[in-house]
Amino acid sequence: MGVEKFAKKEVAALMKARGSLTRATVGPIEGLINLGAGDPDFNQPEFINKAVYEAMKAGYTHYSFTGEPDFKEAIAGYYKKYGVTVDPKTQVLITSGGSQAIFQAFGAILNPGDELLIMDPAYQGYNTPSAYFGAKMTRAKQTKDKNGIYRPNFGNIENAITPKTKALLFCNPDNPTGTVWTQKELEKLAEIAVEKDIVVLADEIYTEFVWNDKHKTIIDLPGMWERTMVLMSFSKTFAWTGCRAGYIIAGPELMKAINAVPVGICSVPVPFQKAAVEALEKGWGFVAEMRDEYKKRIDFMVKRLNEIEGVSCPMPEGAFYLFPDVSSFGVPSMKFARDFFQQKKVRCAPGTQYGENGEGHIRFPMVKPVDELGEVCDRLEDYVKNLPPKAPPAVP
Ligand SMILES: Cc1ncc(COP(=O)(O)O)c(C=O)c1O
Predict the structure, then answer these.
(1) Closest Cα to atom 16, ligand 1: which residue?
(2) pTM for this one?
(3) Most-buried pick from 120, 128, 149, 355 (CB within 10 A)?
(4) Per CATH, which fold does 60-282 belong to?
(5) Which residues form ligand 1's pocket by a CB distance below 6 Å?
(6) C-alpha distance from residue 288 to each of 59, 212, 282, 293 (Å)
(7) pLDDT of 234-243, one tens digit each?
(8) CATH class of domain segment(s) 3-44+285-385
(9) Where in the sequence of the chain do the CATH 3.40.640.10 domains occur?
């Protein structure tokens, strides 16, 4: 036995499950179009870069134990847009991006053996933090509507809730499915959460990318302030994946628990917190530009994908991912994505990365310009043309 003997048991199990896999490294491959991660291909505006330097020059380089008050105020000001009044002093906690928001939220509530209910499909970044805290992840399968968009299935949600269920986590707008929950769906979920007395974690990091509507939050519905944590990030809103800033919004009592998770001093460097204030004040033109560009890419690629025989791709309601259905080819999505990568040098995520209910799908983030997305579709068309015909159903 190696270092595992020193490791916390949950960490040893994660090490074993991970094996030699790490997230980052495929060396440079000529001609590769990488649509693996959802990392926006926009660089943040110069005024934000400058704000970091100006803050350093002004001496904002010291401890900021629980985060800068003006950053929290700017966050509360931003969230008003969703019709919600937030007290920056007691209801906002700053995190180093959405991933830390997830970790800290889980750390506040999950005991070993607790169940955390997520949707199926769901973003895969919830899995290992929940395993780290010894919680059991359970899933409620979503079902597709007439447009081919996955929707919450409340029968499945209610059936999946057990006496051990501590919390339910949902992502709205959703990565990977593009679903935006309706007001009715949010109300139904709130009713269930109150009745079953569970916490709701609302991952809202794609709020700025809702295509035909306006984002609505669950936190303000009756009975929800005391049991909801909204998880947020600058990563997608301001294309800040490398700068790392995020936050949690929760009621003051729940926030006391989140605050008690010993992650140490606020881990967003102070100059970046100051720049984040500038982003929240003046960054909306940049966000609008990104939004327009994403929409253009989405419209282009949905149309083009649907022209490929056997591929069916719904128009996402929110976020900037496409989750086309390729089940007609009868190839497991893991193999489909791997072979597509090996044969055509396009990296995409297999649907099963998001749960077994994602089988038959692949995920494309819209983080490349239209011409490259066109090239991806051409390569996909070529790839599926050469797939062996699907075996006919077995005759009994
Ligand atoms: C739904 C969702 N939540 C959380 C995160 C993590 O956010 P961050 O990159 O800010 O850590 C991501 C990142 O892709 C995401 O898609």
Answers:
(1) 175
(2) 0.94
(3) 355
(4) Aspartate Aminotransferase; domain 2 (3.40.640)
(5) 38, 97-99, 123, 125, 171, 175, 203, 205, 233, 235, 241, 246
(6) 32, 14, 12, 9
(7) 999 999 999 9
(8) alpha beta
(9) 60-282
